[in-house]
Amino acid sequence: MTTYRPTYEELEESVTPAPGKQTLVSAGMFSGNKSDAGAIRGKIRLVLVDDHTVMRQGLAGLLRSEPDLEIVGEASDGESAIHLTRALKPDVVLMDISMPGMNGIQATQIIHAEQPGIRVIGLSMFEEGEQAAAMREAGAVEYVTKSGPSEAVIAAIRACIRSQPVQMHTEG
Asked: How far apart are CA 93 and CA 85, in angstroms?
């Protein structure tokens, strides 16, 4: 049985930005659906979602250096993130919370409702609080601050695939 894999052009066409709005959808090399067990044995497939290009590029650079992680797509807004997760079926989505248009909380609710096996990790400049609670209520499995150590993001990705809580110790 052959699994349908959309082309990059089909992914681009599936995302129609609002008038006057620029949207980024980027899909890398990807294979069909993977089970959780497959993700643990192979590479963890990621989609990065952040409206700031520099932040996405920085995360991508950090994560590409990890041999067990693979970035399969990037998006600059919540709507694009939903389209990418439908097409690519990643294991994990790193989701910025504050984005124009559809924010990360709204996108997480939709992704979680449609594809509960995809783990969403909320990313924000804000420390734990209302934002973190809202993301978890929307279906996110973890919440990481952008101001924290890069190891926290990597640990959160690996832990959510193993379904283990992340135990990070911060100094301060």
From this structure: 8
Digit-coded pLDDT (tens) for 5-48: 444 444 444 444 444 544 555 554 433 444 443 444 589 999 99
Tokens of 133: 């609670």
Q: What span, in angstroms and rounded, lies between the C-alpha atoms of 29 and 118?
A: 18
Owning domain of residue 42: 24-161
Which H or E element spans position 99? none
- CATH number at 107 reads 3.40.50.2300
Name residues whose C-beta falls within 8 Å of residue 103's C-beta, 6 or more positions apart in sequence.
78, 97
Mind giving me the DSSP string for 25-83? EEE-S--S---HHHHHHSPEEEEEE-S-HHHHHHHHHHHHTSTTEEEEEEESSHHHHHH
E strand or H helix that includes residue 84: helix 78-88
Question: Can you give the pTM of this predicted structure?
Answer: 0.74
Residue 11 included in any domain: no
Confidence of residue 162 (pLDDT cuts 50, 70, 90): confident
